[in-house]
């Protein structure tokens, strides 16, 4: 079982952390995958390709077919863009579960799909914040989650590690070093224990499924920053398309509400359950981001799926 790390030479926020990581001890050249070079360190494999980071689908499956090594998880280094241009270090799961068949994904992936979220998302967010504080990147950089979005298609538990939000920051060596240290420590490459391994018989087996809110999931962040919280998919409001049936001030049957919101929740839920076998997935709603008819419909649908809605203390 190996961990696959993926970087692209086209992106300074991707190749920067990868290069910083490769400068650390223990790396050796590995086999090429269809002209993509690799580097090996223990059970970790790092690939450097020359395409857009969301353009190379099924890299984990292709690696398995080429080498016979089973990929346990896959992680991507990438840049982050934001209208605010604020410097940021972000962690997030991937997928576009709200898109319908025939829709053209704007940033890779396939419609109606969500990757298995890496169990490391929550623990690594907290570790990244500690590393950023130690290296004096805070408060200049915000360390935050992002909602589930974009591709590429993967078959293994997946997370993205991003540096934002403009070219000035994509090239920052101190930010690249912080992300590299996160991977180095998080995977135990320095000899310590790895961070964020899911253990199904752990007594802290509650997993947050975030529903609603903005792209940076502020209400969910309030919960996830607490030690011991596991994180599944995070569906921002734009990933929950709901069509007002015109009776928003009265009783509304969830069946009357169009849009792909049910599909989005179901796909994200099933992927989260698969990524955390034996865990209890609990929905955490950003209540203030919904109108009453939306919240009522979502909560009724979650009840149909036998998923309870939790408060912050329910995840501790």
Automatic annotation (TrEMBL):
UniProt entry keywords in alphabetical sequence: Hydrolase, Metal-binding, Zinc
- What Pfam family does this protein match (any one)? tRNA_deacylase
Q: Name one GO biological process term.
A: D-amino acid catabolic process
Source organism of the structure: Nelumbo nucifera
SUPFAM superfamilies given for it?
Answer: AF0625-like
Q: Which GO terms describe its molecular function?
A: D-aminoacyl-tRNA deacylase activity; metal ion binding
Q: Does the keyword NAD apply?
A: no
Mind telling me which InterPro entries this protein's record contains?
Answer: Deacylase_DtdA_archaea (IPR018033), DtdA (IPR007508)
Name under which the protein is recorded? D-aminoacyl-tRNA deacylase
């Amino acid at each position: 079982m190996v961990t696959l790390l993926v970087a692209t030479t086209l992106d300074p926020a991707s190749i920067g952390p990868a290069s910083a990581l490769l400068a650390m001890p223990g790396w050796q050249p590995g086999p090429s995958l269809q002209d993509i070079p690799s580097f090996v360190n223990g059970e970790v494999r790092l690939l450097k390709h020359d395409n857009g980071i969301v353009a190379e689908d099924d890299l984990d499956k292709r690696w398995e077919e080429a080498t016979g090594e089973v990929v346990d998880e896959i992680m991507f280094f990438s840049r982050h863009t934001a209208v605010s241009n604020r410097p940021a270090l972000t962690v997030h799961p991937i997928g576009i579960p709200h898109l319908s068949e025939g829709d053209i994904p704007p940033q890779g992936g396939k419609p109606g799909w969500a990757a298995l979220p890496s169990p490391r998302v929550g623990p690594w967010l907290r570790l990244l914040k500690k590393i950023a504080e130690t290296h004096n990147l805070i408060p200049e950089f915000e360390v935050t989650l992002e909602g589930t979005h974009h591709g590429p298609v993967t078959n293994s538990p997946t997370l993205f590690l991003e540096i934002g939000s403009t070219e000035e920051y994509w090239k920052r060596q101190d930010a690249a070093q912080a992300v590299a240290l996160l991977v180095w420590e998080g995977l135990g490459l320095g000899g310590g224990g790895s961070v964020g391994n899911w253990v199904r018989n752990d007594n802290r087996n509650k997993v947050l499924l975030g529903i609603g809110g903005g792209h940076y999931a502020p209400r969910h962040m309030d919960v996830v920053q607490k030690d011991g919280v596991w994180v599944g998919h995070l569906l921002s409001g734009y990933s929950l398309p709901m069509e007002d049936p015109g009776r928003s001030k009265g009783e509304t049957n969830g069946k009357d509400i169009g849009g792909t919101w049910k599909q989005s929740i179901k796909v994200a839920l099933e992927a989260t359950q698969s990524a955390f076998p034996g865990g209890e997935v609990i929905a955490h709603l950003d209540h203030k981001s919904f109108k009453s008819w939306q919240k009522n419909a979502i909560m009724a649908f979650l009840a149909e799926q036998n998923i309870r809605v939790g408060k912050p203390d329910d995840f501790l």
